[in-house]
Amino acid sequence: MRGKTDNGRRWYQEVDPELAYTLVRESAAVVVNRHTIRRIYGNKEFKRMILARDNNTCYFCGQFGDTIDHLLPRSKGGHTTPVNCVCACNECNQSKANTDLDEFLLAFE
Ligand SMILES: [Zn+2]
User: How far is the CA of 49 from the centre of ligand 1 (A)?
Assistant: First the structure.
């Protein structure tokens, strides 16, 4: 699978078909053709969208949050999709040892 970022930069990361399917199903990407998907959101837009959806409220403790976290850590097979990501405060985010958001986002660069 291949994709393009929406600012026109080509994105040649190979993704496995299951992830591609998940991204499309959760409306994070659209199918361009049989071999290419295109992500709808850039990393910043994605983060903004999750925070807006959750009203900047930490999923774990209910305090104000401005970071996003994965419900199922990527190390355990979770993907960076709208369904798997929630708003989290700094404290809760950092207390989750398996989660490294920067690493997740870099995986999409
Ligand atoms: Zn919290």
Answer: 18
